[in-house]
Amino acid sequence: MQRWQRLVATVLALTFALTLSANDNRVYRLKLASSWGSTVPVLGDAPSELKELVETMSKGRLQLRIDDPSKHKAGLAVMDLVKLGQYDIGYTASYYYKGKDAKLSFFTTMPFGLLPQEQHAWFEFGGGKEFAEQVYGKEGLMHFQGGNTGMQMGGWFKREIASLDDLKGLKFRIPGMGGEVMSKLGVMVTSTPIGELYLALEMGTIDAVEWISPAFDINMGFQKVAKYYYTGWQEPASETQYLVSKKTYASLPQDLQVILETAINQVASRVMTKAMHLNVTAWEKIKSEHPDVKVASFPDDVLRALDAANMEILNAEAAKDPLFKEILESQQAFLKRARPWTMMGEYSYINNTSK
């Protein structure tokens, strides 16, 4: 059969299947658990936007019930809620579950790793999607990218970091892989509860705090008490995820499967653009109201030490888990290929036109 004939046959088969699905007038009600409450900038809005879109596109045949952490009480265990069948969909971030499986971090972000566009390209065309199917498939889950909030800042510091010695004994609230890396350089990593962060920073119980970026940081008030805002290295691309029960997905008519995936892609795109807009707006406000805040970058020797410590952690994990090693090598190889173009394109444009 000629290539065009196969294509026509595929389109006709899909059209027939969708027609049959469209004649199914049953209403399918799914439950979604989110890791973030509705008051969280950007991420808090995404589930309700998804609900509106799928219900409109399906003319009410697919309906979502949204529960945030105030309801399900498990913001950092949403993946488990879906695995156990308590929810059909989870909106979360994969690296929250690195303690269960270190490979999950690859699908959110890695220290010194891919930027958002690079991350998306690796996922869609560089093997990432296939790795996600392996990692999540054994858990009975399907993985869909949920939107990237972009580069995260390196944290708010009460004093300048001029050398590696300045890190020793520093009390720093920084979670995840970033915290593991920092602890190798003598940092005292803390797990101060979110609601206590501002007071702890103000009173000196901690010396620094890493949160997210201006859009998220501004309402925390850190700019009032910490005047050094360091640029990031630990989370260069912060991708969220929709984790869908494979059993639930298989139970949906084909047209509703398409609607759900299309709606997820649309909302995910809005997450990135909305995060960009709010970061711009929030940073303008911070600069205006707190002109004494200084944007700083870690010295080269500190960054080199952080990079070396990060690779030590990654190599140790790769020695224990062959699939972790395979995914790590895939991302590193893609980064080596993609970064020259990133430097030629966006970086050169900014560097050459911002003088």
UniProtKB/TrEMBL annotation:
<keyword id="KW-0732">Signal</keyword>
<dbReference type="InterPro" id="IPR026289">
    <property type="entry name" value="SBP_TakP-like"/>
</dbReference>
<protein>
    <submittedName>
        <fullName>TRAP transporter substrate-binding protein DctP</fullName>
    </submittedName>
</protein>
<dbReference type="InterPro" id="IPR018389">
    <property type="entry name" value="DctP_fam"/>
</dbReference>
<dbReference type="Pfam" id="PF03480">
    <property type="entry name" value="DctP"/>
</dbReference>
<dbReference type="InterPro" id="IPR038404">
    <property type="entry name" value="TRAP_DctP_sf"/>
</dbReference>
